[in-house]
Amino acid sequence: MKNEETARSLRNDRIQGDYYRLDLEAPVIARAVRPGQFVHTQIPGLAHRVLRRPFSVFDTDPATGRLSIIYKVVGEGTARLAATAPGTPISLLGPLGNGFSLPSADAFPVIVAGGFGCAATFLLARRSPVPFRVLIGGRSVADLLLVREYRELGCTVRVATEDGSRGHRGVVTDLLAQLLDGGGPPPRVYACGPNAMLGAVCRLVSGRGLDAEVSLDHVMCCGVGACYTCVVKVLADTPDGWEYVRTCLDGPVFRARETVWE
Amino acid sequence: MADLSVTLAGLALRNPVITASGTFGYGADYADLVPFERLGAITVKGVSLAPCRGNPPPRTAEVFGGLLNAIGLQNPGVDKFLHDSRYLPFLRTVDTAVFVNIWGTSIEEYAEVARRLDAESEGIAALEINISCPNIKHGGIAFGTDLGLAGRVVREVRKATRLPLITKLSPNVTDIGEFARCVVEAGSDVVSLINTIPAMAIDIETRRPKLANVTGGLSGPAIKPVAVRMVYQARQAVDVPIIGMGGIQSAADALEFLLAGADAVGVGTAIFADPGCLVRIVDGIDACLDRWGVPHVRDIVGGVIV
Fold first, then answer.
1. Distance CA A250, CA A234 (A)
2. Distance (Å, rounded) from C-alpha A186 to C-alpha A144?
3. How close, in Å, is residue B194 to chain A by CA atoms?
4. In Å, what is the CA distance from A25 to each residue of A89, A90, A99, B144?
5. Averaged confidence pLDDT in chain A
6. B88 Cβ contact partners less than 8 Å away, ≥ 6 residues apart
7. ipTM of the complex
8. How far is B218 from B198, CA to CA, in rounded Å?
9. Mapping DSSP to helix (H, G, I), strand (E, B) and coil, where does residue B237 land?
């Protein structure tokens, strides 16, 4: 069930660098949302911009109706959102998208996250019956988010930075490769982050006969499946083996084995 | 409470607010968010003879006051549209009139789509002939910017169906009036306008077009004054009902089109940001007519004072 809900901004604080956390009072969506789903958000005071902005739901508190997102200021819309004062009404559509499936209690689950992709997988770790291994990567230490929050959930966290300012020097998929080749039980892999990282995750798991659930980030327009803007190629039973499906409705979570990387 | 009912080519609608093709999918995607029983009609996304994949992404780009799109008419094809539960079988269950937008890459394809829809037309109130899409290589706008081709498409579709016909006109012509007259003479019962305006946007850092298709169609509030002007000119040219559209976001916008000569209005791009705008536009037209002491919405059609 999709809802349009007028949420109220509770707090809207800078976490670090260009990254912000926005807490909203949105009880209907907060109680309905599943891990990996998103809310399509109308930015207040941006009348000359005609679209909403999609944000993964980072965390919820169903008891109080709180819903939180984490965003990075990258353009006019997110800059305006960062300037939104507490108390401002903000229209949300949600929960949207398919979301992740929860691991079973006997699984060995792993999250691979890049940048603020780790916001999209947080609710998955919170609701999981077993603690996750969490691999978080970023360009530098300033891009590593939520390390403490994942640890507070009981997750084991390893980090990688491309400049070596914290943890492993390199990309986060190096850590995934180590884990996959470490001789343990085959993990259940979940990933969210830049598309280049997700492509690497898909190649790593596919090369070992495994699968993964990856949350893709594509520019969206309507967010509900009507406009066919956010299409992505997936393998399909067609004459040339692929078709376009909608990230907003058929995703954003796809199986690694159905993805196409060019 | 003013009387908002309108009649288009013998087709009674509860009010003049219609969703524009391509902005409402095939209805089901908005079923949770929009009370269909409050709408005059919905126009579903363009249907072609064969399934169509559409253009490579990126397919849309937000620009100042509007949206560029080059979706490329991705659709499941007429047979799947008729029989898959997500398309026409679903639309047969909704409490509003359903207009089916059709297109082809040849005149024969337009006629064949119309013929197949006519053969199983339960739940279809009218067909809208799209001769104005700027984003496909063959067909679309090529038919809508050539008087001879526009007339032939409409005549052949007219022969293929008894359903009421709406023809959606391209704004990319010098004289909209002669295109309106041409499609009406060829058998169109209603004209709708405007489709999007061919346009382009460039990312200055990458120096690449923002759309993979290079160019696209501009919609949204940026095009509203162009659309109002064209509806006004079409009204001078033909007596058939007009569905006016282009950048409508509010009841005030809709009323502007009605005053320019539209009998009904299409709402499109505004739905993406604000699905609730559809009902607000219906209620806002009602409230405004009450304030003016106008008993029936038809009383203001073409009422611009010049």
1. 10
2. 26
3. 18
4. 9, 10, 21, 49
5. 96
6. B81, B82, B120, B123, B124
7. 0.94
8. 6
9. helix
Which residue type is seen at B65?
G
Beta bridge partners of B8: B11
Task: Find the helix or strand (DSSP H, E) in which B12 lies.
Answer: strand B11-13
The pairing of beta strand B216-219 with beta strand A231-235: unpaired
Tens of pLDDT, residues A39-79: 999 999 888 889 999 999 999 999 999 999 999 999 999 99
CB contact at 8 A, A67 and A29? yes
Chain B positions with Cβ closer than 8 Å to A:
22-25, 29-30, 32-33, 45, 53-54, 57-60, 62, 64-67, 69, 71, 74, 220-221, 269-276
Over residues B284-299, mean pLDDT: 98
Give A 12-71 residues with CB within 8 A of chain B: 42, 48-52
- Distance, in Å, from the CA atom of B276 to the CA atom of A42, rounded to the nearest integer, reads 12
Tokens of B186: 């060829």
Question: Which region among A33-37, A75-79, B266-270, B296-300 has the lowest average model confidence (pLDDT)?
Answer: A75-79
User: Residue with structure tokens 């949600």?
Assistant: A94
Of B20, B18, B21, nearest to B36 by C-alpha is B18
A6 token code pair: 């007028």
What are the structure tokens assigned to B163, written together?
């359903």
Q: How many residues belong to chain A? A: 262
pLDDT in the model for residue B137: 62
Residue B66, both tokens? 């509007």
Residue-range domains of chain B with CATH: 6-53+73-197+219-300 (3.20.20.70)
What does pLDDT average to over chain B?
Answer: 96
- Per the rule left: phi > 0, alpha: psi between -120 and 50, beta: everything else, B264 is beta
Q: Which residues of A touch B54 (CB under 8 A)?
A: 228, 231, 244
State pLDDT tens for residues B147-176.
999 999 999 999 999 999 999 999 999 999
- How far is it, in rounded angstroms, from Cα B217 to Cα A114? 35
**Domains annotated on chain A, with CATH:** 3-96 (2.40.30.10), 109-217 (3.40.50.80)
Chain A residues with CB-CB distance to B275 below 8 A:
4, 93, 224
- The number of beta carbons lying within 10 Å of the beta carbon of residue B35 is 13
**Measured between beta carbons, which residues in chain B are less than 8 angstroms from residue A49?**
62
Distances (CA, A) of B155 to B11, B110, B142, B152, B168: 21, 11, 16, 5, 14
What backbone torsions phi and psi does residue B23 show, to the nearest 5 degrees?
-115, 0
